[in-house]
Amino acid sequence: MEDRSHKVLLALVMLFLFAVIVLQYVCPGTECQLLRLRALSPSAAADPYRAEDETPARFVPRFNFSADDLLRRVDFNIKGDDLIVFLHIQKTGGTTFGRHLVRNIQLEQPCECRAGQKKCTCHRPGKRETWLFSRFSTGWSCGLHADWTELTNCVPSVVDSKKEVRLRPSR
Predict the structure, then answer these.
(1) Cβ density class 134-163: b for 16+ within 10 Å, e for less
(2) Would you kindly state where each structural domain of the chain is located, as residue ranges?
(3) Torsion sign across C-alpha atoms 81, 114, 88, 139
(4) What's the pLDDT at 121?
(5) Looking at the annotation, which residues are catalytic?
(6) Over the stretch 57-85, which tens digit does the pLDDT of each residue have?
């Protein structure tokens, strides 16, 4: 009888250890969402930014643009002096989007992309100037991963370098 009770006790201890290991695998942090009863209450689910101890939130979501700014329509004049400057932010799908700009957009005069070449020619209709400033149209003219400041200083000089001073648009 004593041998049987040892086996039952051993089985219970093993079951407890197994449960602890599974719990650590499912909830590796110090505070497990599964064990908190407040996480199931509707008030906690309503505001994800509210701290548990009712202190003011450290992160307050806010938008830098008004709804009108986000919904405004911008007409791009490919025949005029309008220029699209593509700022490639790393690890955000920028390479795919940049390729899409030169290969898939339906325009009056689409970019010419030749097999084996990384750069495409994106000229305005009837002109020998580009409407797109990106690594797939002008190459790395302003550096490998130029940021906004570098592009602001570099783009006008690169784009307007071939024009006469009187023909350069104000940007």
Answers:
(1) bbbbbeebbeeebeeeebeebbbeebbeee
(2) 89-165
(3) negative
(4) 92
(5) 145
(6) 665 556 677 778 878 888 888 888 888 99
